[in-house]
Amino acid sequence: MKKSDVILIITILIISSLIMLIWFKKKEGNKAIVYYDSKAILQLDLKQNGIYEVEGAKGKVKIEVNSHGVRVVAENSPYHICSRQGYIKKSYETIVCLPNKIVIKIANEEIDTVVR
Amino acid sequence: MLRFLKKYINYLLLLIIIILITYLLINRQKQQEFSRDLYYMDTYINVRIFSKNKEKAQTALNEIENIYKEYHMLSDKYNNYKDIINIYYINTNYDKDKYLKIDTKLYDLINYGLDFYDKSNGLLNINMGSITDIWKKYRDKGTSLPTKEELQKQNTDIKKIILKDGQILNNRPNIDLGAISKGYTTKIVGEYLNSIGLDKYIINAGGNVLVGKHYNKGKYRIGIQSPNKDDGLIDVINAENISVVTSGSYERFYEIDGKIYSHIIDPTTLYPSAYMKSVTVITKDSALADALSTTLFLMDIDKGLKFLENYEAEAIWYTNDNQIITSKGIDKYEEK
Predict the structure, then answer these.
(1) Do B208 and A115 touch (CB under 8 A)?
(2) CA A97 to the chain's CA centroid
């Protein structure tokens, strides 16, 4: 076996494993996903504190992430139900901003859905 | 360069073929989740379909949106829609016609409600619209209770609703289908999905859950939220092809002088029912689950346990002093 053959085989192996890595990359936990009108528009890393703004149906929706979890801090709606709801953190919790068509869900593998 | 290519062309081709085959294999086998959020019947509805066929799933989601939208408009008691005879129209119509011709879908839905009035010995009453309106008005303000006189002068007699040959008697009843419309429509949606072969799905319509076959080989895990908001789950149901419906949500009640008033009104007292904090029903048929959960919420737990024996259904009660009581067969849904 020539030296160049070895190099080529190693190159092929590296390229294939990189491709596999990208395809099979597992979804991490501790994430919140923000949806607008059924479309995922933002992913939030719950370990990373921060303030985010997304565009809802009735204007900007401001979302905060810190050690307590995720919450909506400001939005424009008649009853402000979703900003009054407070933090969500556990893997099945959801914030629904109905007038703004914004839904925030904690990504989960454990529970498929929750009746409330 | 040319020499290099000639030398390695076989290797390169092999590499490309390996990548292509892997790509095709992965993509062909991959079942995806298609999800949509809907806002009808005063609630947030989430539909998830698991399928390999993207186009079919998207078409189905559009059709499901149409189904919820249509039943929403038909059962809406607050709004008028062009060219639709709906509950608002029926409740407020002054025309002289003796009978109104109504859509078969609405006819069947009202009929389901009338049928369950008998089955529940009058506890599930769909002619309570004026009463639920009064309570909603006070609940929105959240500062006081309606008076007995105000409630008692409303007509809640179920005999005001008379169906005949696709028509309804035009005598201005007070129909409110809130106790059955979500579960009933969700059942229709489930039947539609099964009929086109998309039988792996999770539908969550605000307290009404219906799941089809599991997307993998396991069972769905359906959490039941405690009525005390911060307590997390009180139980987890493991099942396929099942509906789980909770009545007595923490989201729709109000508090006067330390007493909790729920949004489910007892037709015998005209006051909100207070036998328990919540009740969850587990059964295959989501229309039945919805109707049963309301009915059980209007009975004390002993009566409820007895009433439930008439059905192939299980229930979980959450009492006012935070105890959990379950019907006998519930263990078949619990994790082993």
Answers:
(1) yes
(2) 16
Contacts of A15 in chain B (CB under 8 A): 15
Q: What are the helix (H) ranges across A35-80?
A: none
Amino acid B29: pLDDT: 59
Which residues in chain A are closer than 8 Å to B233, comparing Cβ atoms?
Answer: 92, 111, 114
Tell me if B233 and A96 make a contact (CB, 8 A cut-off). no
B221·A114 Cβ contact <8 A: no
Nearest CA to A98 among A43, A61, A53? A61
In the predicted structure, residue A77 carries a pLDDT above the cut 80: yes
ipTM, interface predicted TM-score of the complex: 0.76
Full set of structural domains in chain A with CATH: 31-106 (2.60.320.10)
Write down the pLDDT at residue B186: 98
Shortest CA gap B29–chain A (Å): 13
Q: Where do we find the tokens 């002054």?
A: B94
What is chain B's mean pLDDT, rounded?
Answer: 91
Q: For residue B328, give the 3-state DSSP assignment.
A: helix
- What residue spans define the domains of chain B? 87-169, 219-336
| Residue A10 sits at the chain B interface (C-beta within 8 Å) | no
Query: Residue A27: exposed, middle, or buried by beta-carbon count in 10 A (0-12, 13-18, 19+)?
Result: exposed
Residue B263 to residue B95: CA distance in whole angstroms: 32
pTM: 0.80
Distance, in Å, from the CA atom of B11 to the CA atom of A63, rounded to the nearest integer, reads: 51
Q: Which residues of B touch A111 (CB under 8 A)?
A: 221-223, 233, 236
Gyration radius of chain B over CA positions:
25
Q: Do B233 and A92 touch (CB under 8 A)?
A: yes
What CATH architecture applies to the domain B87-169? Orthogonal Bundle (1.10)
Fold of B219-336: T-fold (3.10.520)
Q: Cα–Cα distance between A42 and A39 in angstroms, integer?
A: 9
What pLDDT is attached to residue B318?
94
Assign A65 to helix, strand or coil. Answer: strand
Residue B255, pLDDT score: 82
Q: Which residues of A touch B204 (CB under 8 A)?
A: 113-115
Distance of CA A79 to the CA centre of its chain: 26
In angstroms, what separates the C-alpha of B37 from chain A's closest C-alpha? 5
State the distance between the two ends of chain A, measured CA to CA, in whole angstroms: 66
Residues 6+ apart with CB under 8 A from B310: none
At residue A26, does pLDDT exceed 60?
A: no
